[in-house]
């Protein structure tokens, strides 16, 4: 299992507010190399698969509605210790609890509308990347 890849989504609210450029700049400035990226409209079926871990939670249907309401940007990022470093960069889910200088502190509206998704484990990063990218779409850096 790779430990140098992680997966992210720039969520609909961040795209609508034109935060895409500044968020991507933060990826780059913090040493993440973008090895695959595209803008997509997430289907309800794919959203259910992506967020199946939350299917029993009360917010599941609201999450699916939000994530399928508009375009998203999905990306595979490469860096040593990618998952942990990226989780630190994005900050806590609730922007009120996120550390100063994190993506969510700077760009999230709320706990539910939090600008970005980041994989929480190497296993999930691998699974999530595979949902959106084929092997020939990922351009790994040395």
TL;DR of this structure?
With 142 residues, this protein is of the alpha+beta class.
Give an account of the 3D structure.
The chain is α+β, with helices and mostly antiparallel strands and 142 residues long. The chain has one domain: 2-Layer Sandwich (Alpha-Beta Plaits). The protein is 39% helix and 18% strand. The protein is built from seven helices and four strands. It has helices at residues 12-16, 20-29, 44-50, 60-68, 82-90, 103-107, 122-132, and strands at residues 5-10, 33-41, 71-78, 116-118. A four-stranded antiparallel beta sheet has the order 2-3-1-4. The longest helix has 11 residues, at 122-132. It is globular, with a radius of gyration of 14 Å.
Tally of discrete structural domains: 1
CATH uppermost class: Alpha Beta
Q: What fraction of residues sit in β-strands?
A: 15-25%
CATH superfamily: Nucleoside diphosphate kinase-like domain
What would the principal axes of the Cα set say about the shape?
Answer: globular
Uncertain spans, ≥5 residues at pLDDT below 50? none
Oligomer: single chain
Helix content: 25-40%
What structural class should be given to the helix and strand makeup?
Answer: alpha+beta
What characterizes the major β-sheet?
Answer: 4 strands, antiparallel
- What is the number of helices? 7
